[in-house]
């Protein structure tokens, strides 16, 4: 696991901040360049042209790449306009699956929220996770002060715990697989009881799990452009002795209770981890609330049937 620092700078200020981050993290530094950044530092017209241009930029060190579990610190300027194409082009062209990204934006005074939101979205779509966002004011600040600010940012990043090396897309894939498996378990429970009321309950819950999987597929398609095809090995078929067996029914109930609890924790974790993505937060919290109800219902049913079984 390695931390790499990439910067883009025309005026020179983002480079100074990046130098400070390097000192704090003792990590390699890569410069993102285009035809504007090659001009003399401080040439103000270059900044305006860089925003309007469509040069995607190149790395001064070729073949830079990231492995799962790595961290990227991206330092870039905001010039009261759109995102610099060289920066967005870099993010959209590099593999970031399982990479935690820290954004460090330099700006004269204020602004840049839309730029940050766009970059965060691009990073998540590339498989990365946002580890933190830093906005640094550069107006009237000397070179040494800018390096000091960069060093403080680097120290903060160094204290951050290493993130889990999984992308949003991979977490959604696992969630879809889990919902499909839980639905299959509810369908099995239908076969394990002669009670019509229980059969209806399990059937409704199986339908709910299918709806959850559809919601997850919509979210997955929004970030990948394709529909996920579950391929996890199917759960084992019921043996003849498990059909209409009370003990087997209780065991199956215990399994779905734990599956619902796991789903709740997973959805809440996704919402917290991808707080920059409103659609992800909204959908996963909806799913978490639905599974809370499923969990409570199944836990209550399990406890009730367990007490009944113990008195038989």
UniProtKB/TrEMBL annotation:
Gene3D superfamilies: 1.20.1260.10, 3.40.50.360. GO terms for molecular function: metal ion binding; oxidoreductase activity. SUPFAM superfamilies: Ferritin-like (SSF47240), Flavoproteins (SSF52218). It comes from the Bacteria. Coiled coil: none annotated. Residues 170-251 form the Rubrerythrin diiron-binding domain. Pfam families: Rubrerythrin. This is Rubrerythrin diiron-binding domain-containing protein.
